[in-house]
Amino acid sequence: MTKEKGVGRAHSKIILMGEHSVVYGYPALALPLNNIEVTCQVFPSEKPWTLYEQDTLSMAVFACLEHLGKQGAQIRCQVDSMVPEKRGMGSSAAVSIAAIRAVFDYFEEALDHETLEILANRAEMIAHMNPSGLDAKTCLSDVAIKFIRNVGFSEIELDLGAYLLIADTGIHGHTREAIKKVESLGQEALPLLQELGNLTKIVEKAIQLKDLLTMGQAMTKAHGKLAQLGVSCQLSDDLVEQALENGALGAKMSGGGLGGCVIVLIKEKKEAEDLARLLREKGASNIWIESL
């Protein structure tokens, strides 16, 4: 059985704390961005679905068809995404998850959470070669996630009564290049990575205590450490500085770096809206405000 149209949706994510230090065994904290969505629609086609290497959408759909025993299915996909690519917001994971849900919906097949996660991670391996699974896990979650490499995932309760402003620099992030940059520092990087790990733990504790001041200060310190590692960029530094000069409790780059997004912790919605206007004037190409 098939429908005239299958529909699937997924939301994006952002790293709150733990960029780069997570590679070295320290925790990372990631947040789902429930209002920033991808929608995928599946329609009948005159041609069978084709697998293109290095393409997560094509791999996600192919993995579904293989799982369902429908490799020769004649379908096509239409993706509408609010998530910019290569900004550390989980674009490829969100597209994969939306596509998998759409394919299963089209064929009127039941899809359990475990199967969805396995298929999404298969597709993510095309995009990221050796993904941690954090993007897929957070894009599948409605709550914040803590991740430690070789240990696993746990959920974090978030009820801070504050706001996170996400400012897109408009510059593609370069995660692999940034990771190599950190590796090239050798022993020199280790104290900075340890401090980043400690700051992540401070933020985790501050979330439990609803201590916005400590959380914001730790975020700002983390940006300084990431800049010292050489993985920030000038526009990210400028946006962080502007945010801090205009009432933000904390601000930092997010994701692999050398582009991507800046995140800003703010107490009041009105302050967030005012700051959004200012950061647009200062070069941010897009801005979202999420409730914490």
From TrEMBL:
Pfam families: GHMP_kinases_C, GHMP_kinases_N. The keyword ATP-binding applies. Keywords: ATP-binding, Cytoplasm, Kinase, Lipid biosynthesis, Lipid metabolism, Magnesium, Nucleotide-binding, Transferase. Pathway: Isoprenoid biosynthesis; isopentenyl diphosphate biosynthesis via mevalonate pathway; isopentenyl diphosphate from (R)-mevalonate: step 1/3. Residues 63-137 form the GHMP kinase N-terminal domain. GO terms for molecular function: ATP binding; mevalonate kinase activity. Residues 205-283 form the GHMP kinase C-terminal domain. One of its GO terms (biological process) is isopentenyl diphosphate biosynthetic process, mevalonate pathway. InterPro entries: GHMP_kinase_C_dom (IPR013750), GHMP_kinase_C_sf (IPR036554), GHMP_kinase_N_dom (IPR006204), Mev_gal_kin (IPR006205), Ribosomal_Su5_D2-typ_SF (IPR020568), Ribsml_uS5_D2-typ_fold_subgr (IPR014721). GO terms for cellular component: cytosol. This is Mevalonate kinase.
